[in-house]
Amino acid sequence: MSDDHELAARLARRAGERLVELRGGSAAEPRALGDAGDAAAHQLLVEALAQERPADPVLSEHGVAGPERVPGERVWVVDPLDGTREFTEPGRADWAVHVALAERHEVIASAVALPAQGIVLHTGEPPKQPTRAIERPRIAVSRSRPPEFVTAIAAEIGADLVPMGSAGAKITAVVLGEVDAYLHGGGQYEWDSAAPVGVARAAGLHTSRLDGTELVYDRPDPWLPDLLVCRRELAVDLLAALSDRIEGSR
């Protein structure tokens, strides 16, 4: 039996290859292409996990599968296509496939495929962090609606905003050193961040809620209100700026 790190990486890669194949051979309009990609990657992941880890339940953006899920016990948390909009736009590479395994409310193995870039990052061999000094921090934000609080934080600490697509693409951009931080305050589901947060933790990055508390996965309610992923040397300044805003809003 393959270990969980290798399995996560292999399945993320396979789902990504299927999505690239669909994307390249389809003349469908964007919504239909996105729906087809979501469905195909979901089916591939659920069927593969049922075969290779039949005792483990699966929590996906598109529902649950396998044995009954018991929060706190082993569960695979997957997002078959993170960044459907970007997937349907020709030439865009900022979309991802997430495969994570959570147990005791922590991600213990995960992988993120960036199929259009030919990259798979996983917890078995996490990337080494860059050693360059941060002269002016770069913060990943939404392409279409950068949150006002992130714009204010960037102005406070002297950072630049870098628009990009899916949550997985943003977090892996921090892992790869393309940006220095990602802050999100509008709420997401566990499948939006479990896999990339697992890789980020394994790579030595800071990961937390915006108030500095731990990110907790595999809960009865998969809603996750906010998160912060950043280089460790930025964490103190970012958390201090965030704390001032959190206190000021009370």
UniProtKB/TrEMBL annotation:
- Gene3D superfamilies recorded: 3.40.190.80, Fructose-1,6-Bisphosphatase, subunit A, domain 1
Q: Which cofactor does it need?
A: Mg(2+)
Q: Where does Mg(2+) bind?
A: 61, 79, 81-82, 192
The protein's annotated catalytic reaction(s) are: adenosine 3',5'-bisphosphate + H2O = AMP + phosphate
Q: What does the record give under GO molecular function?
A: 3'(2'),5'-bisphosphate nucleotidase activity; metal ion binding
The family database entries (InterPro entries) matched by this protein are listed as: CysQ/Inositol_MonoPase, Inositol_monoP_metal-BS, Inositol_monophosphatase-like
Q: Which UniProt keywords apply?
A: Magnesium, Metal-binding
**Pfam families in the record:** Inositol_P
Give the SUPFAM superfamilies listed for this entry. Answer: Carbohydrate phosphatase (SSF56655)
Q: Which GO terms describe its biological process?
A: 3'-phosphoadenosine 5'-phosphosulfate metabolic process; sulfate assimilation
Kindly provide the name given to this protein in its UniProt entry. Answer: 3'(2'),5-bisphosphonucleoside 3'(2')-phosphohydrolase
Q: What's the source species for this entry?
A: Saccharopolyspora karakumensis
